[in-house]
Design goal:
By secondary structure, the protein is of the alpha+beta class. 53% of the residues lie in helices and 10% in strands.
Length: 608
């Protein structure tokens, strides 16, 4: 378990809006932020995020917490893993985070596969240095890949005799099942063999840098596939993989951007040109998991696929995906230049590559260029469809030079007159009519303590009000300890204990985010319920301003209602099993006490 001060340091360094927006789209609403809640089937934004208090709360399903507990709940991981994830998102470094970081949470059934694939990666790297590996080294030299880059990207070679690769792994103590489960074993009539045999090897790693699969490139034009990727295995899922992500995520936090490229060699080309924040896909589309990984980088995405028609079409597809995901992105656009980044580096040098990568346009400009230069519009139907596609976007741009410029570009691409485009824009007005907004009123939550009783409003409101003041003021905490001591409602009593413990240990006012960290790291079975309740109480806006009188009123209400509950419970128990005459006497005494309480309450109201 990480220490309290380490967790506090991470929470103080983290911005909850940044952390949550690395998982889901977040929109600003006044002083707060809102998002569609991922913890229930939400259609309208009901997740409220307070930048000031560094907490979140859903007003529909009740889920609440801080930056760490959001990640814990969203990814369904342990609290310790969530601590490391948040630190990773915000670029927080501390030696204590690395201590035993991977030991506890590796599934025992997966560990033999990691051990096996780690040995295989080393074997491939070794094979590059033997005589047979010269064919692979010659290819790398031809592509101007230096020995430093070979080492940095762990490039290897798979010997042609794939059976020997399997024998090597078995000699290292790995079972045939493990070898098959990492995805390299190919059953043949003569035995099991490595299906990467005779190919150049690019290791594929997860976000922590653990190798999980391989992409193997052919070295001879023998009619086989240019690349062979690992099949789906217990540790390799293509939809979760972005090449070089584990290495680039650190520089992306620092640089504020990440380049998405189409090929491994393109990543190395940018690396040689001094651009470290670059990754590659294994295809021309993004999975939802990959979008999630990019979101966590909290930086601008710079999309750059090949300049040929398939590459540009792939970028068009990704524009839609990135727009839907609400991510910030621009696109590298060099109309007429069909070269990929590696070609530019080889032919024109690093400065030319950096200049090319700096030609960035927004989605509108890129899409207009696409329809102007790549997929020219021929039929009237196509032209109208494209024109109508851009109209909602133009409606959301404030009237002025920028909008006028876009209208001219759209006119050139589609052939529609500027006047006709303006008429379409004005038809819909300036508002984005597709967005629905829901206003959530303040809600007071009341819980039933006894099935046969009505909701005990006075007691619960009083106890909740004291908790609210305790979260706001250390004086209220002292008042609780001296005057009230405990609450009737168990959940509120637990929260009060966490608050008093917090103040006793830290000697400072409550930081809500840190308090939620204490609750989450405590291991309590009802931690989720406690976090949700604290987050809910923090968002209350109906309590009177803090004062000693307000606390005194609450203390009186709590005392009286506790006595009433005790009296009711005692009477109910006394009635069970008694004779009719005894029951009549007990009920008579109960009514007398109840009437006396009413008279006393009326007298108190008059005196106030």
């Amino acid at each position: 378990m990480y220490s309290r001060d380490l967790i506090d340091s991470i929470l103080k360094a983290a911005d909850i809006v940044t952390v949550i927006s690395s998982y889901i789209p977040v929109i600003k609403k006044g002083r707060s932020y809102m998002a569609v809640c991922p913890f229930h089937d939400d259609k309208n934004p009901s997740l409220n995020i307070s930048k000031e208090k560094q907490i979140f709360k859903c007003f529909v399903c009740g889920t609440g917490g801080n930056a760490i507990t959001f990640v814990e709940k969203y990814e369904k991981i342990s609290f310790e893993e969530a601590v490391r994830k948040v630190a990773d998102i915000i670029g927080f470094h501390d030696e204590r985070l690395q201590k035993d970081a991977y030991r506890v949470h590796i599934d025992p059934s997966i560990k033999p596969l990691y051990d096996c694939i780690n040995d295989l990666e080393k074997y491939y790297q070794y094979a590059l240095s033997i005589e047979e590996g010269k064919i692979a080294k010659d290819y790398l030299e031809k592509r101007h890949i230096s020995s430093d880059e070979v080492a940095k990207f762990n490039i290897g070679y798979a010997p042609k005799d794939g059976a020997k690769t399997v024998q090597y792994l078995q000699a290292k103590g790995h079972s045939l099942k493990s070898i098959e489960d990492i995805g390299i074993a190919l059953a043949k009539s003569v035995g099991t063999s490595d299906n990467n045999a005779g190919r150049l090897i690019f290791p594929l790693k997860n976000s922590n840098g653990q190798v999980i699969g391989f992409s193997a490139r052919r070295l001879a034009d023998d009619g086989s596939s240019k690349y062979v990727n690992s099949p789906e295995t217990p540790i390799f899922h293509k939809s979760n993989v972005i090449y070089n992500y584990h290495s680039a995520k650190e520089s992306a936090h620092h640089d504020g951007y990440i380049y998405i490229l189409e090929g491994f060699m393109d990543v190395m080309a940018l690396d040689k040109a001094g651009i470290k924040s670059a990754v590659a896909l294994m295809g021309t589309s993004l999975s939802s998991e990959q979008i999630m990984m990019l979101r966590r980088l909290n930086c601008e995405i710079r999309l750059c696929l090949d300049g040929d028609a398939p590459g540009q079409t792939g970028m068009m597809k990704m524009v839609t995906q990135l727009n839907r995901a609400g991510l910030s992105f621009r696109l590298v656009s060099n109309p007429g230049d069909l070269r990929d980044p590696d070609d530019i580096l080889q032919e024109s040098g690093p400065d030319a590559l950096k200049e090319s990568m700096g030609h960035l346009v927004d989605a509108f400009d890129f899409q207009i260029d696409y329809y102007t230069n790549v997929k020219k519009l021929d039929s009237p139907e196509e032209k109208r469809k494209v024109m109508m596609y851009f109209i909602p976007y133009l409606r959301n741009i404030e009237a002025g030079i920028d909008r006028d410029n876009y209208i001219v570009k759209l006119s050139n691409a589609t052939g529609y007159e500027i006047k006709a485009i303006r008429e379409q824009i004005n038809k819909g007005g300036n508002a984005d009519l597709s967005r629905e907004e829901t206003t959530y009123g303040d809600q007071i939550e009341f819980e039933r303590l006894h099935p046969e009783q009505r909701v005990l409003k006075r007691l619960l409101i009083a106890e909740r009000e004291v908790l609210y003041y305790m979260l706001e003021s250390m004086d209220a905490v002292k008042y609780f300890e001296k005057t009230i001591d405990s609450f009737y409602y168990p959940l509120y009593n637990s929260i009060a204990n966490y608050i008093t413990d917090y103040v006793e240990k830290r000697k400072e006012p409550i930081n809500i985010s840190s308090l939620l960290g204490d609750i989450a790291s405590s291991g309590a079975e009802n931690a989720d319920e406690l976090e949700s309740k604290v987050s809910s109480i923090c968002e209350d806006n109906y309590h009177p301003p803090y004062s000693i009188k307000a606390l005194d009123d609450c203390a009186v209400a709590i005392k009286e209602e506790k006595e009433r509950l005790y009296d009711d419970d005692t009477t109910r128990k006394a009635l069970s099993g008694e004779s009719d005459s005894e029951k009549a006497k007990i009920i008579s005494d109960y009514i007398k006490r109840k009437n006396a309480r009413r008279i006393k309450e009326k007298a108190n109201k008059k005196s106030n």
